Amino acid sequence: MTGPQRREQLVQVGRKLFAEKGFEATSVEEIASQAKVSKPVVYEHFGGKEGLYAVVVDREIQALLGGISEALDEGQGARVLLERATLALLDYIESDTDGFRILVRDSPAGQSTGSFASVLGDVASQVEHLLAAEFKARGLDPKSAPIHAQMLVGMVALTGQWWLDRRKFKKDQVAAHLVNLAWNGLAGLDPNPRLVTQRRG
Protein backbone atom coordinates (compact mmCIF):
# COMPACT_ATOMS: atom_id res chain seq x y z
CA MET A 1 0.00 0.00 0.00
CA THR A 2 1.03 3.59 -0.55
CA GLY A 3 1.34 5.87 2.51
CA PRO A 4 -2.05 7.54 1.91
CA GLN A 5 -3.72 4.15 1.33
CA ARG A 6 -2.25 2.77 4.56
CA ARG A 7 -3.36 5.88 6.44
CA GLU A 8 -6.90 5.51 5.11
CA GLN A 9 -6.93 1.82 6.05
CA LEU A 10 -5.90 2.68 9.61
CA VAL A 11 -8.61 5.37 9.82
CA GLN A 12 -11.28 2.85 8.77
CA VAL A 13 -10.02 0.18 11.21
CA GLY A 14 -9.84 2.74 14.02
CA ARG A 15 -13.32 4.06 13.22
CA LYS A 16 -14.80 0.57 13.47
CA LEU A 17 -13.05 -0.22 16.76
CA PHE A 18 -13.82 3.16 18.36
CA ALA A 19 -17.50 2.70 17.44
CA GLU A 20 -17.63 -0.83 18.86
CA LYS A 21 -15.53 -0.42 21.99
CA GLY A 22 -14.98 3.27 22.65
CA PHE A 23 -11.70 5.18 22.88
CA GLU A 24 -10.48 3.83 26.23
CA ALA A 25 -11.11 0.16 25.43
CA THR A 26 -9.38 0.32 22.04
CA SER A 27 -5.62 -0.27 22.02
CA VAL A 28 -2.91 0.54 19.48
CA GLU A 29 -2.09 -3.19 19.49
CA GLU A 30 -5.63 -4.03 18.43
CA ILE A 31 -5.68 -1.38 15.71
CA ALA A 32 -2.34 -2.66 14.36
CA SER A 33 -3.46 -6.28 14.54
CA GLN A 34 -6.70 -5.68 12.64
CA ALA A 35 -4.86 -3.63 10.01
CA LYS A 36 -2.18 -6.36 9.80
CA VAL A 37 0.64 -3.92 10.49
CA SER A 38 3.09 -3.41 13.35
CA LYS A 39 2.41 -0.91 16.15
CA PRO A 40 5.16 1.48 14.91
CA VAL A 41 3.19 1.94 11.65
CA VAL A 42 0.24 3.34 13.64
CA TYR A 43 2.57 5.67 15.57
CA GLU A 44 4.29 6.73 12.34
CA HIS A 45 1.02 7.87 10.76
CA PHE A 46 -0.83 9.30 13.77
CA GLY A 47 1.60 9.60 16.69
CA GLY A 48 -0.62 7.27 18.71
CA LYS A 49 -4.22 6.36 19.41
CA GLU A 50 -5.17 9.97 20.27
CA GLY A 51 -4.04 11.22 16.88
CA LEU A 52 -6.01 8.56 15.03
CA TYR A 53 -9.09 9.25 17.15
CA ALA A 54 -8.84 12.98 16.41
CA VAL A 55 -8.79 12.32 12.65
CA VAL A 56 -11.79 9.97 12.90
CA VAL A 57 -13.81 12.42 15.01
CA ASP A 58 -12.96 15.37 12.75
CA ARG A 59 -14.25 13.48 9.72
CA GLU A 60 -17.49 12.61 11.49
CA ILE A 61 -18.03 16.19 12.61
CA GLN A 62 -17.51 17.47 9.05
CA ALA A 63 -19.97 14.88 7.69
CA LEU A 64 -22.64 15.72 10.26
CA LEU A 65 -22.27 19.50 10.10
CA GLY A 66 -22.06 19.39 6.29
CA GLY A 67 -25.40 17.60 6.04
CA ILE A 68 -27.10 19.94 8.49
CA SER A 69 -25.62 23.09 6.91
CA GLU A 70 -26.92 21.98 3.54
CA ALA A 71 -30.36 21.39 5.06
CA LEU A 72 -30.37 24.88 6.57
CA ASP A 73 -29.91 26.74 3.29
CA GLU A 74 -31.94 29.90 3.63
CA GLY A 75 -34.82 30.75 1.37
CA GLN A 76 -37.11 28.11 2.86
CA GLY A 77 -39.92 28.61 5.33
CA ALA A 78 -39.19 27.94 9.00
CA ARG A 79 -41.27 24.73 9.08
CA VAL A 80 -39.44 23.32 6.05
CA LEU A 81 -36.06 24.21 7.58
CA LEU A 82 -37.01 22.46 10.82
CA GLU A 83 -38.06 19.34 8.91
CA ARG A 84 -34.93 19.33 6.78
CA ALA A 85 -32.58 19.82 9.73
CA THR A 86 -34.31 17.03 11.69
CA LEU A 87 -34.08 14.67 8.74
CA ALA A 88 -30.41 15.59 8.16
CA LEU A 89 -29.47 14.45 11.67
CA LEU A 90 -31.56 11.28 11.38
CA ASP A 91 -30.03 10.59 7.93
CA TYR A 92 -26.56 10.84 9.46
CA ILE A 93 -27.52 8.49 12.32
CA GLU A 94 -28.92 5.98 9.83
CA SER A 95 -26.16 6.08 7.22
CA ASP A 96 -23.16 6.66 9.53
CA THR A 97 -24.12 4.62 12.56
CA ASP A 98 -20.49 3.95 13.54
CA GLY A 99 -19.65 7.63 13.27
CA PHE A 100 -22.62 8.63 15.39
CA ARG A 101 -21.69 6.07 18.04
CA ILE A 102 -18.18 7.55 18.17
CA LEU A 103 -19.50 11.10 18.58
CA VAL A 104 -21.92 10.25 21.38
CA ARG A 105 -19.32 8.37 23.42
CA ASP A 106 -17.19 10.24 25.93
CA SER A 107 -14.15 11.94 24.43
CA PRO A 108 -10.67 11.19 25.79
CA ALA A 109 -9.76 13.08 28.94
CA GLY A 110 -8.49 16.56 28.22
CA GLN A 111 -10.08 16.82 24.78
CA SER A 112 -12.40 19.81 24.79
CA THR A 113 -13.37 19.82 21.12
CA GLY A 114 -14.93 17.05 19.10
CA SER A 115 -17.34 15.99 21.81
CA PHE A 116 -20.95 15.46 20.85
CA ALA A 117 -21.89 18.41 23.05
CA SER A 118 -19.56 20.71 21.11
CA VAL A 119 -20.94 19.42 17.80
CA LEU A 120 -24.51 20.06 18.97
CA GLY A 121 -23.43 23.53 20.09
CA ASP A 122 -22.23 24.23 16.53
CA VAL A 123 -25.53 23.00 15.10
CA ALA A 124 -27.55 25.05 17.61
CA SER A 125 -25.65 28.21 16.67
CA GLN A 126 -26.69 27.65 13.03
CA VAL A 127 -30.32 27.19 14.06
CA GLU A 128 -30.26 30.17 16.42
CA HIS A 129 -30.29 32.98 13.84
CA LEU A 130 -33.13 31.31 11.94
CA LEU A 131 -35.18 31.10 15.12
CA ALA A 132 -34.40 34.70 16.04
CA ALA A 133 -35.81 35.91 12.71
CA GLU A 134 -38.92 33.73 13.15
CA PHE A 135 -39.43 34.96 16.73
CA LYS A 136 -39.17 38.57 15.63
CA ALA A 137 -41.75 38.00 12.89
CA ARG A 138 -44.14 36.46 15.46
CA GLY A 139 -43.71 39.20 18.06
CA LEU A 140 -41.65 37.02 20.42
CA ASP A 141 -38.38 38.07 22.06
CA PRO A 142 -35.54 37.14 19.65
CA LYS A 143 -33.12 37.20 22.61
CA SER A 144 -34.62 33.89 23.73
CA ALA A 145 -33.67 32.19 20.41
CA PRO A 146 -30.38 30.69 21.76
CA ILE A 147 -32.10 28.70 24.52
CA HIS A 148 -34.76 27.44 22.11
CA ALA A 149 -32.08 26.44 19.60
CA GLN A 150 -30.35 24.37 22.30
CA MET A 151 -33.65 22.74 23.29
CA LEU A 152 -34.58 21.86 19.71
CA VAL A 153 -31.18 20.40 18.83
CA GLY A 154 -30.98 18.49 22.11
CA MET A 155 -34.45 17.04 21.61
CA VAL A 156 -33.61 15.78 18.12
CA ALA A 157 -30.21 14.42 19.16
CA LEU A 158 -31.46 12.49 22.19
CA THR A 159 -34.40 11.10 20.25
CA GLY A 160 -31.94 10.09 17.53
CA GLN A 161 -29.86 8.14 20.05
CA TRP A 162 -32.97 6.37 21.30
CA TRP A 163 -34.07 5.58 17.73
CA LEU A 164 -30.64 4.18 16.82
CA ASP A 165 -30.94 1.50 19.48
CA ARG A 166 -34.61 0.62 18.98
CA ARG A 167 -35.65 1.37 15.38
CA LYS A 168 -39.30 0.74 16.22
CA PHE A 169 -40.36 3.63 14.00
CA LYS A 170 -39.43 4.55 10.44
CA LYS A 171 -37.14 7.56 10.08
CA ASP A 172 -39.87 9.73 8.52
CA GLN A 173 -42.21 8.88 11.42
CA VAL A 174 -39.58 9.90 13.98
CA ALA A 175 -38.95 13.14 12.10
CA ALA A 176 -42.68 13.85 11.81
CA HIS A 177 -43.23 13.39 15.55
CA LEU A 178 -40.22 15.55 16.43
CA VAL A 179 -41.31 18.33 14.09
CA ASN A 180 -44.90 18.07 15.35
CA LEU A 181 -43.81 18.62 18.96
CA ALA A 182 -41.30 21.33 18.11
CA TRP A 183 -43.42 23.25 15.61
CA ASN A 184 -46.63 23.17 17.58
CA GLY A 185 -44.70 24.00 20.73
CA LEU A 186 -43.11 27.00 19.04
CA ALA A 187 -46.44 28.06 17.54
CA GLY A 188 -48.03 28.22 20.98
CA LEU A 189 -45.16 29.87 22.83
CA ASP A 190 -46.13 32.18 25.66
CA PRO A 191 -44.23 35.45 25.08
CA ASN A 192 -43.65 35.80 28.82
CA PRO A 193 -43.37 32.28 30.30
CA ARG A 194 -43.73 31.73 34.05
CA LEU A 195 -43.65 28.67 36.27
CA VAL A 196 -47.05 27.71 37.67
CA THR A 197 -45.54 26.54 40.94
CA GLN A 198 -43.30 28.63 43.15
CA ARG A 199 -40.25 27.03 44.72
CA ARG A 200 -39.93 27.40 48.45
CA GLY A 201 -36.64 28.47 49.85
Compact overview of the structure:
This protein has 201 residues and is mainly alpha-helical. The chain has nine helices and no strands. Helix content is 72%, strand content 0%.
Tell me what you see in this structure:
- The chain has 201 residues and is mostly helical.
- The model has no long low-confidence stretch (mean pLDDT 86).
- Helix 4 runs antiparallel to helix 5 and helix 5 runs antiparallel to helix 9 (171-187).
- It has nine helices and no strands.
- The chain has a domain at 58-188: Tetracycline Repressor, domain 2.
- Helix content is 72%, strand content 0%.
- The protein is elongated.
Task: State the name of the first-level CATH class of the domain at 58-188.
Answer: Mainly Alpha
Please tell me the overall pLDDT.
86
- Write out the CATH superfamily name of the domain at 58-188: Tetracycline Repressor, domain 2
Proportion in helices:
over 70%
List the secondary-structure elements in sequence, H or E.
HHHHHHHHH
Given as residue ranges, the uncertain stretches (5+ residues, pLDDT < 50) are: none
Specify the overall morphology. Answer: elongated
Could you give a short account of the major beta sheet? none
Strand tally is 0
Instruction: Using the coordinates shown, work out and report the CATH topology of the domain at 58-188.
Output: Tetracycline Repressor, domain 2
State the secondary-structure class: mainly alpha
Beta-strand content estimate: under 5%
Give me the CATH architecture of the domain at 58-188, please: Orthogonal Bundle
Rg over alpha carbons: 20 Å
Intertermini distance: 68 Å
Question: Counting H and I runs of at least 4 residues, what is the number of helices?
Answer: 9
